[in-house]
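Sample entry (558 residues):
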Amino acid sequence: MQTGNITKYTPFKQIPLTDRTWPDQVLERAPIWASVDLRDGNQALATPMNVDEKLEMFQLLVEIGFKEIEVGFPSASDTEFNFIRRLVDEKRIPDDVTLQVLVQAREHLIRRTFESLEGVSKAIVHLYNSTSPLQRRVTFNKTKDEIKQIAVEGTRLVKSLVSTIPDTQVRLEYSPESFSDTEVEYALEVCEAVMAEWQPTEDAKIILNLPATVEVATPNVHADQIEWFCRHLKERNKAIISLHTHNDRGTGIAATELGLMAGADRVEGTLFGNGERTGNLDIVTVALNLYTQGVDPLLDFSNLEHVRTVYERVTRMTVHDRHPYAGDLVFTAFSGSHQDAIKKGMDLRTKDSTDTTRWEVPYLLIDPEDLGRDYEAIIRINSQSGKGGVAYILDRDYGLDLPKAMHPEVGTVVNNAADAGSRELSPVEVHEVFQREYVNLRTPLEIVSIDREDFSKSGEVRVEAEIRYEGKDAVVAGTGNGPISAFVDALQQQGHKDFHLIDYRQHSIGGGSKTKAAAYIQIKREDGLNFYGCGIDSNIELAGLRALVSAINRAHQA
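Predicted structure, serialized as tokens:
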């Protein structure tokens, strides 16, 4: 790499648009979506899809809701050609879906493409030739006029061949390939020449696709290109302006969103951004970005896991763990502060939510349930996790609603367990740690049996218990205003009390005949240290007593 004065690369020329309006625009409706998974995405695979795999992908795209699907480059290979024929012969094309086919502006390729379309109800013939100065000079060694003539002659041939498939409604899409690197004035000149040849109308518009074949500048420059083009196109009302961004600079999604703000009507892209080099536009992300802003994307990603499964199987690609919306970890928080905020947001939503309640959970842009994901993976526990995350898992998966003051202590215990193993703990393991450290502990103190007697006049309760302390059996008795205070009195009489009772909470777990009670007791030892214990039992009084004994045992073990 060069250092200091970089001479190998130069910045892309800015667009002469000083009064741009796109920064003030808001996206309020979904664009026309066109999937190019079966062409652009497929040609970028190390092992392209076979016909059966393409059929499965086509069916998936239909289920998602795409109405325009680029199914291939039928003049390029027999596989591509035969795939289209199979779609037709097996009547797999829904009435509301338009097939799109790509073809270079070359005569024999255009003729072969039309042969593939026989029997198709609605088709978009996507014609292209490269227009950038680099391509003109290096690849074709042709002048501007010669390049423009290729586009015009290709359009003329397409128009003449429409009559050969009279039962097919044919629309034209033209792409000045490498629009992103083409002088905007020249790209406009070529597109207007194509329009003049095709003669579109307001009812039968041409699609002018302006591809960022290579991403050469920042997204704002792409938006300037689109707005400049839309402003200067003579018959804008007779054209659908389409975007086709790639991701060479990692900003293909931003470029598309700004391009829509700049006036484009249509978007081409692929599921999860599969495509040449660094990939195409990821339509999943753009569609769900719209959804999170309250805009119906008109595409169904309510079972995103299924979409991802099919995609990974037929493309042999994988979706990254951190891929927006679809990655395994995108709804997962390991950080303690994030977990605590998420738990609070989810708790409020559980109490107050309806189907129309606004989604307001910190750190989560979208409700995972809207995408067919459950809440299981939202909070996962490792050594970096916090009190809120541990409490959330115990509550969500096991119905244990720990007192808030107990969260830090339990969080520390679970985090230490994760740190000791140098790995993440599953919800089952979190529960096991909690059970082992807090629930129904029997060492050194254990209640073997207990009897209770109520005094109706005084309201006091007397308990007599058989206990085992450090392996020795004893019988203790005491009175109090309830079983717990009576048992504390009994321990005090035997010299086993070196604590004060600070807090007691209880709640039910489950329902019906299987309902249990969970109790939490906090004690303060004489040296000022606090300890919590938990008791779980089908009898609520025994649950409280087991919680007390667990707290005492934890204090003795500390």
